[in-house]
Amino acid sequence: MKDSKKYFVSSKQWASWVAGGLFFTSCVFLLMFYGAFWKQSFYIHDLKHAVVFGGLVLAPLMTTCLYMLILPFGKKGSGWYICPITLWLFHEFVRACGISMGLCILWMACVFLAWIVFFFAFIGKTKAITPLFWLIFIPLIVQSVRTIMGVPSMGMYMSLPRLSNISAWLGVLFFVFAMRREENGFLLRWNDRADGRRLRSLGPFSIIIPYLMVERRDSQNFFMDSIDVAAIDRYCREKRREGLMGFGIMHVFLAAYVRTAAMYPSINRFINGQHIFSRSCVEFVITIKKEMTIDGEETTLDFKFAPDATPVDVFHAMDEQIKENKKPQQSSSFDILIKLLTAIPGPVLKFTIWVLKKLDYFGLLPTFLTDLSPFHGSAAFTSMGSLGIPPVVHHLYDFGNIPVFFALGKKYKKTEIDKDGTVQTRKYVDFTANTDERITDGYNYAVAIQQMKWFLMNPHALEEEIEVKKDVQ
């Protein structure tokens, strides 16, 4: 299943039409000012000035008309609305170069570049208000102050270009507020996060619980169970014979949880800022040792899977990344980030971590940090089997948003007596789960765990197509 994402400006949004009206007003101010020069044959007297007139007046007028046509008739999600806005900003940059030099050109260029970065690097991932968004206010404030201070000395007529600037940047501002993103059939809003959308149709009890149990350590539920691994062992041997060397129980276990989350999306929620969010993909965080020695270094890896991923998909996604990061001289992106943070003096580092926590609380943590973070994901997973010990009951982290922590133990044999009196020796493996009870109720957790165990007992079912269910609004 491929995630479906569309970015658009809806004609149903009042801010979209206000933006168009402001763009049109800006054009009127330009025509009023430059039109007088054109009448007197004073301004356009050669090709150079004709080009300037076209760039300063005709270009914004044409882009405004294009925007007003795209708004009601454009195909939602096509992205064509970017064209007139980008041309508008280019026009503003040209105008800044023509009217004033030096510092004015510098901040116009910075804002223009910031806008491009905002569109193509941030808006495709998050609808949260990024810090770059506020750079739009810089030219708006500067032009407003210049106009207010210049009107008494210059007069209203000579202030028309500045009034046009103010109107244009106000239009850009309203345009940003009007943008919407649709992901997997859901319309994302401003207080959604890059890693999930906020659930707004939950019952009152579900809404109040995160305020009563603020930290994850206050809301941990521990669970332990065993699995008969006979079917899993047969399945793993089949896959190894097919050439998937290294295929093991971990890949089947993770694939079973992925499929379970596709059927019961409530277990793929998380909490940030006392609000419950739904994640569109299933994201695992796993810690590995590069060498199985006491002094061996650890590194943390992050894996994202589509809700309908099979065990083979899980294996291919994990195998290459694990092999690459087990190399002694290889450092993951998270390792590099940690080295940079630990180079900061202690008091400054403590303040930096506090700032990161606050940004994460309000959903403003940059996407590249949440992608690197081992504290953000659907579930964390650790295997004690290679260490030869039972599974630990691992705690949840208060920082980040991981709501589930799984631990898998070693395999062991157990002699049992069946109902007919037959003595059987079976092979089992224990696993533990530490869950955040605030994301869903106990019934949903119980049904989901039973479904996951069924998948583990019937691993071939993980290769069948499945209908991915959507979480509530």
The CATH architecture of the largest domain is 2-Layer Sandwich
Q: Uncertain runs with pLDDT below 50, 5 residues or more?
A: 40-44, 96-102, 121-132
CATH superfamily of the largest domain: Chloramphenicol acetyltransferase-like domain
What is the beta-strand fraction? 15-25%
Give the total of domains: 2
Strand adjacency order, main sheet:
5-12-11-10-8-9
H and E string: EHHHHHHEEEHEHHEEEEHHHHEEEH
CATH topology of the largest domain: Chloramphenicol Acetyltransferase
Task: Kindly name the structural category.
Answer: alpha+beta
Radius of gyration: 29 Å
Give the overall shape, derived from the CA principal axes. elongated
Number of strands: 12
CATH uppermost class of the largest domain: Alpha Beta
Q: What fraction, in percent, of the residue positions are helical?
A: 40-55%
Q: Provide the residue-averaged pLDDT.
A: 78
Strand count, sense and barrel status of the largest sheet are: 6 strands, mixed
Q: What count of helical segments does DSSP give?
A: 14
Tell me what you see in this structure.
By secondary structure, the protein is α+β, with helices and mostly antiparallel strands. The chain folds into 2 domains: 5-188, no CATH class; 197-463, Chloramphenicol acetyltransferase-like domain (Chloramphenicol Acetyltransferase, 2-Layer Sandwich), CATH 3.30.559. The chain is 49% helix and 17% strand. The protein is built from 14 helices and 12 strands. It has helices at 14-39, 47-73, 82-99, 103-122, 137-158, 160-178, 204-212, 230-241, 249-263, 311-325, 333-342, 346-361, 367-372, 442-457; strands spanning 5-9, 179-183, 186-188, 197-198, 220-228, 269-272, 275-278, 282-289, 298-305, 379-383, 404-417, 423-436. A 6-stranded mixed β-sheet has the order 5-12-11-10-8-9, with helices on one face. Strands 1-2-3 form a 3-stranded antiparallel β-sheet. A hairpin with an 8-residue loop joins strand 8 and strand 9 (298-305). The longest helix is centred in the first third of the chain and has 27 residues, at 47-73. It is elongated, with a radius of gyration of 29 Å. Mean pLDDT is 78; it is low at 40-44, 96-102 and 121-132.
